[in-house]
Amino acid sequence: MTELVEYLVKELVDSPDEVKVSEDGEVINVSVAKSDMGKIIGKQGRIAKSIRAIVKSVATKQGKKCTVEILEAE
Question: 63 with 52: CB under 8 angstroms?
Fold first, then answer.
């Protein structure tokens, strides 16, 4: 699941080398550069909602539960 999220996020940002994806149980944490936060969230959160919907759909097909949290890189 993390590979899917990492692929989606890296295709959207300007700094794909700063993308970090980790899994903590049912939560997938995505860390991106501060300058790329807007690109991942999108207008009114549409892109973030779309990423979460895709992940939820794939997880449901696999019989799992999964959520995506978007974090700013430190």
Answer: no
Question: Using CA of residue 51, residue 52, residue 57, residue 60, what is the dihedral sign?
Answer: positive
**Using CA of residue 16, residue 61, residue 47, residue 32, what is the dihedral sign?**
negative
Q: What is the pTM of this model?
A: 0.87
The answer to whether 21 and 28 have CB atoms below 8 angstroms apart is: yes
Angle between helices 2-12 and 46-61 (to 10 degrees): 160
| Rounded-to-10 torsion of CA 71, 46, 40, 13 | 170
The lowest-confidence range among 8-12, 13-17, 18-22, 69-73 is 69-73
What is the SS3 assignment for 1? coil
Element (H, E) at 20: strand 20-24
